[in-house]
What we know:
The structure is a homodimer. Chain A is of the alpha/beta class. The first copy, chain A, has two domains: about 30-280, Alpha-Beta Barrel (TIM Barrel); about 280-405, Beta Barrel (Lyase, Ornithine Decarboxylase, Chain A, domain 1), CATH 2.40.37.10. Chain A has helices at about 10-20, 30-40, 60-70, 80-85, 105-115, 125-130, 165-180, 195-220, 245-260, 275-280, 310-315, 405-410, and strands at about 25-30, 50-55, 75, 95-100, 115-120, 135-140, 185-190, 220-225, 270, 280-295, 295-300, 320, 330-335, 345-355, 360-365, 385-390, 395-400. The longest helix of chain A has 22 residues, at about 195-220. The first copy, chain A, is globular. Chains A and B meet through helix 3, helix 4, strand 10, strand 11 and strand 17 of A and helix 3, helix 4, strand 10, strand 11 and strand 17 of B.
Amino acid sequence: MAEKNLPLGREALEKLTETYPTPFHLYDEQAIRENARRFYKVFDWIDGFRNHFAVKACPNPAILSILREEGMGVDCSSLSELILAERTGFKGEEIVFTSNDTPPDEFREAARLGAVINLDDISHIGELERAAGLPELISFRYNPGKARSGNVLIGEPHEAKYGLTGEQVLEAYRITKEKGVKRFGLHTMVASNELDSAYFVETARMLFELAVRIKDGSGAEIELINMGGGIGIPYRPDDQAVDLGYISEEMQKLYRQIIVPAGLDPLKVVFECGRLVTGPYGFLVSRVLHVSRKYKDYVGLDSCMANLMRPGLYGAYHHITVPGKEGQSFDHFYDVTGSLCENSDKFAIDRQLPKIEKGDLVVIHDTGAHGYSMGFNYNGKLRSAELLLKEDGSVELIRRAETIDDYFSTMRFPEAPA
Amino acid sequence: MAEKNLPLGREALEKLTETYPTPFHLYDEQAIRENARRFYKVFDWIDGFRNHFAVKACPNPAILSILREEGMGVDCSSLSELILAERTGFKGEEIVFTSNDTPPDEFREAARLGAVINLDDISHIGELERAAGLPELISFRYNPGKARSGNVLIGEPHEAKYGLTGEQVLEAYRITKEKGVKRFGLHTMVASNELDSAYFVETARMLFELAVRIKDGSGAEIELINMGGGIGIPYRPDDQAVDLGYISEEMQKLYRQIIVPAGLDPLKVVFECGRLVTGPYGFLVSRVLHVSRKYKDYVGLDSCMANLMRPGLYGAYHHITVPGKEGQSFDHFYDVTGSLCENSDKFAIDRQLPKIEKGDLVVIHDTGAHGYSMGFNYNGKLRSAELLLKEDGSVELIRRAETIDDYFSTMRFPEAPA
């Protein structure tokens, strides 16, 4: 079986746990930076190429700062994320604000920051106008409906709550142009965790052609195309990663075929990938509390869905390694469980692993996106610390673990009973 | 269509929102108390009957205090829940501690509190002994495996991570009796949100018969049978509630047939229901931010999965009413969505409702259990306040809403960028 690498071996991890008790999330700075540079290099034919990192994937200031240093922007979808972006040093059009069900104060905050506001609905034109006035640049989220198929994670576009329909989108640009908006963006997001490279080429074609139709139909000249995110990562060791080089080349051909002849060149193309950027470079490090034999064999960890929801929530695959046991034969089958009082709290079912003993360290891979950020406090479970393995090999605490006091902080206790 | 009642009408709710902005959870004290009394009355043939409220369903000190006043105990499954129970005034065997993947400090805390410790695995005997010594009273969680079928929510028992197998359970009592344990409990939990009354009668039969086998096989005399929870509530207006009276009567017959002849009378029978106790008496009150027409019609609320996960997570049905529009014809179909940047964040799909307008209040029913407690902060969303409608008609804030500062509290910001 193909294996996945760890940035630290058993000994180094054990040493780390002397300072930081398990469970914790560990991020690999060097790998994040190298990956960001590869991503940018592949698309260097695009003038002003940018990836707006989806903050929800990993809302940690240290990680966001690294990505800012690598030239990335951010994609925000709530007031908290906008404030986090500002506090981490992102400015103006480095920030995209995409939100589908938006209160006026969020529109105002996005406008104050000079963010690219990406409207989800035609009625939001009026909402934004009333809340903050219309900015110079407006973007719309397009939902192709039955013209495209989605995937399991995000659902079919025509049943999705997002975006403007084909008819509405032309009207939206006409209306905003009439109202004096000068600059225009176009956005879509039709897949999530998709590994088929051709899918993204089709998305580029769809948006490029739509940009031309928008110019013809409304006079609005799109200057910014946001391809959305949704580029998957190979969670399973045998999964094939998306071929960014192929996507870039095909996009460049389409750009020359569609955008240039329409007089829309230069046009900036951006992405809003989160998972692709940090997903593979985060690791949930746990310790085995119990190994037990019931009707099946179970390995019980000191982490749970509070630290990583995806397996329990979607049945998502996350690779698991047992540091120090890489060379042993994988001759045991275990359900690897969390400590939540919910039977769905399993990190893996019938996973083939080396023999596991109480006290072993266990690493769950690919938790760098939608890992910590999706955690809850159900069952009174506390969310763990986040650590950064820096380029110089040192490790820094970039988020402290929650404490019982955090858990109690919003509660109000009645007078103590007699 | 059958409708569900609200404890407050539109006008009273609107007035409330002047002090407490939506969204918020509202609990009905009088209904909670009346329901608790009905529950206890039905089982009054059992000497020392008690329901140990599953704290995870609604971990709010004010709600727990009400339940304590009504004679309930608590069922805890983590350190935080144990501490919450103590701080709310629960003592000794009013507390049951059931945990499947337990660190030593949790065993120690449960022992310190004098809680009934309910062990999930035969290997936990040694764990508990090393952590805190064996207490006078020990309970074990029994997993019947293929002898019973579970349901969709909890899965099949033989694939569940919980409990001791049929063989292990006898051995466990033998071992602990030998080690000097004097008093014994027996627990199971084989269903979740189950509406079939007969299922619970079968669970009683299973446990009563097992208690006799345990006595015969190990000499341990069970004095406490914990039926678990899992009693469902009628989320849909047409669902039939569980018939507690029937369950109680049938259990009493089985008690006379099985327990009395075996010389196990008096034997205390308890439950650990959460959902049944508070579920129907909590309401998520939201306001409509947007009504939009895309490929379907959408109602966008100011709440989201951060406030209520069940619909987005399981596709669970929660009834929705629009206060003030009770008399109107239900001639519109809407997807009622939350504001999360996730397409799964829908409270209802194709729900038949009266015509909804921006600004309407919308109430989501049956959020009194597994509502607030399952919320997360994904997308930077903040968890809402909890309010108590008291018996005198006044309303008290029993949990403050989260703030942006809460959201930032565990983060570490690098030096401000230049």
